[in-house]
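Exam revision sheet. Question 4 asks you to relate a sequence to its structure. Input first:
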Amino acid sequence: MKIILDVLKKELFDNENILWNGKPIIWKMFNAIDYFLIPLGILWTFGGIFYEREFIRIMLLSRGHTGSVTFLYFIPIIIVIPIIAMGIYLLITRFIVKAYIKFKTFYAITDHRIFIIQRGMLKKIKSVNIEKITDIEISKNKNEIGTIYFNKSYHMIKILNTISLEIPWVYYHSNQFTFFDIADIEKVKGIIDNLK
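Answer key, structure tokens:
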């Protein structure tokens, strides 16, 4: 965290002070959209494996009858491979990517701006002036862990914004300002409200 604070101090104005800093909670992985994405991942993965197995079985059976296999038998096998890969991404890989992005992301609030600092492969520092924040919404659970959405995040944007955490290039290029999965969310929101 000291390295991040050193990076942040280089970005600060002379009269700017850090009021709060934190990072997303890594172990919070599941969102409401997972009720849809996990069954879809199961369907794609196991459906793809089933069809792949059937295509290979048909190819082997036809080879036994004709003695050779044409390229046309390999087309369905090749087409199903990306479907299986997408299913595996939906079931496993996206959670690893999300944990990596959360591990490398840091948030800060100063008396003038809010910051999102990304380290690792996706190095980026985003900031917005407190005066430019027109709307703040929070969603939280009973443990006071939640997400703060800045500047009119409508329902569909919230869903896409949450998914963007699992797709690095979308998260990196997103203009949406969001503090994902932070502890003591009411305290953090209170700091921002006091500055407005």
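Marking note for examiners. The two ends are 27 Å apart (CA to CA).
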